[in-house]
Amino acid sequence: MREASNAEDVRVCPDCDQINWVSGRTSIRCKRCGHLLGGHPLSAQHTLALIIAALILLIPATEMTFVGYRVSGQGQQITLLDSSLTLSAFHEQWLAIVVLLSVVILPALFLLASGVILIWHNRTHYKMGRWLVRAVKYIRVWMMADVFLIGALISFIKLAGYATIDFGFGVIAFAGFVTLLMMVVDRMKRHPLWPADERAVNYRAIVGESARQHQVVGCPVCYAANPAHQTTCWRCNEPLWTVQFRRTSLTFALLLAAALMLIPAQVLPIMETVALGSTQPQTIVGGVLSLWQSGDIPIAIIVFVASLVIPIAKILILATLAILARQDTSKRPKSALWLYRITDWIGRWSMIDIFVVAVLVALVRNGALMSVYPGHAAIAFASTVILTMLAAMSFDTRQFWVRKSTE
């Protein structure tokens, strides 16, 4: 094994707990599990240009007409923000906050913080920069502008059979914003964001072995190696007590809560449609059947998978992995980790149904002729998605490697 004496040259993988030597490398991935630990040298100016362009597009995306529809001589137009404001008008403030935060506010904050980080990078006064990098790390998980765009397209398809859909410039600007946002997210994962720190103490560790064996704690944000007794990370000032949230007991509790919330989410109507004075409640499964019967089979499959298959599968898979992690899983830890990563990645896409409801409630407002109202299942389903995401975050994948690393 190779020894490393400089803390700047060491990264602790958050997925498998292996200590990695990264000095002089342009592509920093964990040698054991492949987790991306650092970045390729990228152009900060190029990333800043993408950030500025995305922020500029966000203005017309929120202010200009997003979409409109016409039926029987009557029509309605909405902006992007109406998808949240209309929910609030129907006393669904919690749901409105979730939509506004995940679609507009958090992506905007991510871009602004990323721009400041790149401008301040390697400056003498970097205290605020450290805080912003940590904030960006956590904000990135909860941004769902791309999921909202797919949900909006599904809602347009659902309406196409009943009305004429008119796309505004706002939806075009928002699609461009989402594209640039995803590019910035990918580049920020790869930028070397941490400047050399004079506080870095000399640290001796065996590269290629588990950090736990050497009484070392890996920072969950910057992956720096810290002595087990240290309370904050020497590189980014992240409180190291947050590592304690990665516990199997917490994962099980969150999964149980998600499973309980999934029951009303599937049984109660997620939205109610009023057409010619007649009220038609629609559950998630009812919406899938409606799309299937109308001939939109691919969309019906997408909604079915995102709204029913993914939440149930995620709960079952995470529960199974948590049970196996307590047993002897050292024979196939990479397979278990791969399954976890897939499950964690697809979880956020279950929010598609919530965004479909948000768009339809804002857009279809023609009184007794045709109107859509949010149902009680919407809050329960959004809670299920959030709880499963938190459960995935609390899951400690390092358990897969404990037996292997101590053999």
Automatic annotation (TrEMBL):
<feature type="transmembrane region" description="Helical">
    <location>
        <begin position="94"/>
        <end position="120"/>
    </location>
</feature>
<keyword id="KW-0472">Membrane</keyword>
<feature type="transmembrane region" description="Helical">
    <location>
        <begin position="299"/>
        <end position="324"/>
    </location>
</feature>
<feature type="transmembrane region" description="Helical">
    <location>
        <begin position="141"/>
        <end position="161"/>
    </location>
</feature>
<comment type="similarity">
    <text>Belongs to the PqiA family.</text>
</comment>
<protein>
    <submittedName>
        <fullName>Paraquat-inducible membrane protein A</fullName>
    </submittedName>
</protein>
<feature type="transmembrane region" description="Helical">
    <location>
        <begin position="167"/>
        <end position="185"/>
    </location>
</feature>
<feature type="transmembrane region" description="Helical">
    <location>
        <begin position="376"/>
        <end position="395"/>
    </location>
</feature>
<feature type="transmembrane region" description="Helical">
    <location>
        <begin position="345"/>
        <end position="364"/>
    </location>
</feature>
<keyword id="KW-0997">Cell inner membrane</keyword>
<dbReference type="InterPro" id="IPR005219">
    <property type="entry name" value="PqiA-like_proteobact"/>
</dbReference>
<feature type="transmembrane region" description="Helical">
    <location>
        <begin position="48"/>
        <end position="69"/>
    </location>
</feature>
<dbReference type="Pfam" id="PF04403">
    <property type="entry name" value="PqiA"/>
</dbReference>
<dbReference type="InterPro" id="IPR051800">
    <property type="entry name" value="PqiA-PqiB_transport"/>
</dbReference>
<keyword id="KW-0812">Transmembrane</keyword>
<feature type="transmembrane region" description="Helical">
    <location>
        <begin position="250"/>
        <end position="271"/>
    </location>
</feature>
<dbReference type="InterPro" id="IPR007498">
    <property type="entry name" value="PqiA-like"/>
</dbReference>
<keyword id="KW-1003">Cell membrane</keyword>
<keyword id="KW-1133">Transmembrane helix</keyword>
